[in-house]
Amino acid sequence: MSDSAGTSSNVCYRHPNRQSYVLCQRCGRTICPECQTQAAVGVQCPECVREGRASVPRTKSPLRAAFSRGSTKPVVTWSIIAICVVLFVLQNIPVIGNYVVSFGAYRPVFTAILPWTLITSAFLHGSIFHILLNMYSLFIIGPVLERMLGRGRFLALYLLSALGGSVAVLLLAPASLVVGASGAIFGLLGAFFVIQRRLGGTNVQLLVIVGLNLVIGFVPGLNIAWQAHIGGLVAGAAVALVFVRTRRADQRTTQILFVSLIAVALVAITIARLVLPVS
């Protein structure tokens, strides 16, 4: 007498015509070789494999985790530093560097035809010492402010500070050529001063740092655009003042409105300076 292949205990539950004596380690059902998936111990059936995969928490890649809403990594600061470094390398490549400077550096006389340079100039630098000093400053203060404000607010602060610095150059030094993140970084310093003051912290050391950097800007022969420093400082402080006075969740719309008004004001000043004759 031969054993029948039709009994439920020795046939694959998915293929009743296939005899097998191998059991799934999770549910105990009989499975044929086609339905077996090797596990840490024994084999598993397709359903148990799917259930096991569904129950495992999904892990994010380091890059995705860094950009997730709950991450505290200062990715905006790192991104700005990376962009500045890449552009500095391009600046020092023959031919390519000429294009980068021509279409990225800020020349007030070309504001009407190259308006984007009001901001792009903050990502270019004139020398290795220039970029090292600015990127070190950004590396120190950027992460602190970015964690305090959040990425969106920090980026808005940085860009508006850069714009404020260029607008000051347009008003006070219209014949110059300007590159560098100094105006934007001074905006971060101004913002940090306002926020720290609002929170009741001591900011004597910060005032000393800002004061020394402003004084250095007036030293003859260093070719430092002190106008950008002052413009960035004022713009950054103004943006931070909006932030500290609209901290509640229900004031988000008001915050966006007033930050937008600062941007509109800077653009309006630029247009007025280009349109109105100089007395």
Summarize the topology:
Elements: E1 37-38, E2 43-44, H1 46-55, H2 62-67, H3 75-91, H4 96-104, H5 117-120, H6 128-149, H7 151-172, H8 182-198, H9 204-216, H10 226-245, H11 252-275
Antiparallel strand pairs: 1-2
Helix pairs in contact: 3-4, 3-6, 6-7, 6-8, 7-8, 7-10, 7-11, 8-10, 10-11
Structural write-up:
The protein has 279 residues and is mostly helical. The protein is built from eleven helices and two strands. The chain has helices at residues 46-55, 62-67, 75-91, 96-104, 117-120, 128-149, 151-172, 182-198, 204-216, 226-245, 252-275; strands spanning 37-38, 43-44. A two-stranded antiparallel sheet has the order 1-2. One of its GO terms (biological process) is proteolysis.
Using brief descriptors, characterize the structure shown:
279 residues, mainly alpha, Rhomboid-like fold, 2 domains, 1% strand, transmembrane, protease, Rhomboid_protease_S54
Structure in a nutshell:
With 279 residues, the protein is an all-alpha fold.
Question: What's the CATH architecture name of the largest domain?
Answer: Up-down Bundle
Report how far the terminal alpha carbons are from each other: 116 Å
Strand order of the largest sheet: 1-2
Instruction: State the total count of DSSP E strands.
Output: 2
Q: Tell me the domain tally.
A: 2
- The helix/strand series, from N terminus to C terminus, equals EEHHHHHHHHHHH
Rg: 31 Å
CATH class of the largest domain reads Mainly Alpha
Sheet having the most strands: 2 strands, antiparallel
- Unreliable runs, pLDDT <50, ≥5 residues? 1-7, 63-68
Shape: elongated
